[in-house]
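Margin note: ligand = nicotinamide-adenine-dinucleotide.
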Amino acid sequence: MDALFIDGQWREPDTDPITVRSPVDDGVLGSVPSGTAEHVDEAVGATAAVATEFRELNVYERAEAVKAAMAAIEERADSIAETMAREVGKPVDEAREEIDSAVLSGRSYAEDAVRLFGEVTPSRFEDRLNYTQREPYGPAAVVTPWNYPLEIPTDHLSAALVTGNPVTWKPASDAVLTATHVAEAFARAPLPEGAFNFVPGSGSTVGAALAGHEAVRLVAFTGSTDVGQRIAARAAGRSAGCLLELGGKDPVLVLDDADVERAADAIVMGSNYNCGQSCSGTERVIATEAVYEDVVAAVSERTAALTTGDPLAADTDVGPPINDDVRETVRDHIADALDRGARVTAGGSVGDRYCEPTVLADVTPEMRVATEETFGPLTPVIEVADTDEAVAVANDTRYGLQAAVFTESLRTAHRVINALRSGGVVVNGTNNVWEHQLPFGGFKQSGSGGEYKGKWHLEGMTQVKSVAIDYGD
Ligand code: NAD
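Resulting structure:
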């Protein structure tokens, strides 16, 4: 299988392969040759060589290229969804939803980019015209995770390319087969040679070489907070831009006057969609004492009814976690919580492959399940006295991605929206949600440097040039 796409050519180097194993049964699904630091150097060299031509290319032409890539993905959506389900264990319906959302976004970036306006600003001087325009950074690196292996890359790639940044992309090795489909779509798009490059490989070689490359002016990274911070430290040494979308420990607050049934539906979706492996997954439920027992009962009942199994089966709600690390974290978080006094009210068993969707009641804020990102189908429920304590517990974390609050009071909703230190707040719906025309990004250690989606993502991929024209005598 062709593996690397550099300077307009597919390459199949004789290097160590990345072998992809099924999270369902550990069977080998395929392998792809791995890139090296030398390949990164070549790819970044190609982006540097084409940067001026690409920046000067009419934005409508770049938009057409992105639309062509989206059409290519859409054409093969069924087979890509199947690859994704096999490779990362995502139920095939969820894989289809991811593709549809990604294609909608890719097309929207193409439309939004031709409306990325500058501003004319007043001047304190006579006979002077001031205005701003947005320009690309130049050679860019995109480094992506495995959990949304199609949507996250297509978002970053579409946004970077349509704004004129030539790109080198390193996908997650756990999702390299899905990534190869995406790479084929962009490789076939009418882009100048060198504008799009694809170099799979490990984070410690290819990822680190990209983040540290002297010629890379922007790193768009989505992944864990620890890796993102390491990348940002390297980029800081040459003042390169960084767009970081990182981890979360997202809370759902269920307050005294909440519609508990509605909250339970949203919580169960938020905790278990994508096997709980969403950056904005519901990682903590914080319920006031007035509703606590009802919340535990309603969430447990719904969680116990979920079907776990083969991601390709039509009735599967929850597939297997991606790898041993995720599964063992779920096991450890349950064990730690039980040791410290929590109780299991649904599920509770972690096998060799699957994690049963689990609800833990009587969780306290210092337990690992309440402080560390679990990234699995686990719902810890914490009891608090009132709204103020709910907000204090919700904010007591290094993360701040996407929170939700359930209340029937407009006044309470507004107070909580303002008090939560979180990049997004949803009222009376799941926190595990995104759409194109709403920015998605983190406060605190959940992200910095820009947002996903819409014009905000395009702004994160560009820098502002200010222009002053003196037309006096
Ligand atoms: P990860 O940080 O382990 O890996 C992400 C990418 O970084 C991979 O391609 C990996 O190979 C690469 N990488 C690893 N070490 C590197 C290094 N030293 N230098 C450069 N690149 C390196 O994350 P993951 O396990 O793939 O994804 C799960 C994490 O991503 C979770 O923390 C989740 O919350 C987060 N995430 C965040 C968002 C968001 O929008 N905020 C979206 C999806 C996932």
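The chain has 15 helices and 20 strands.
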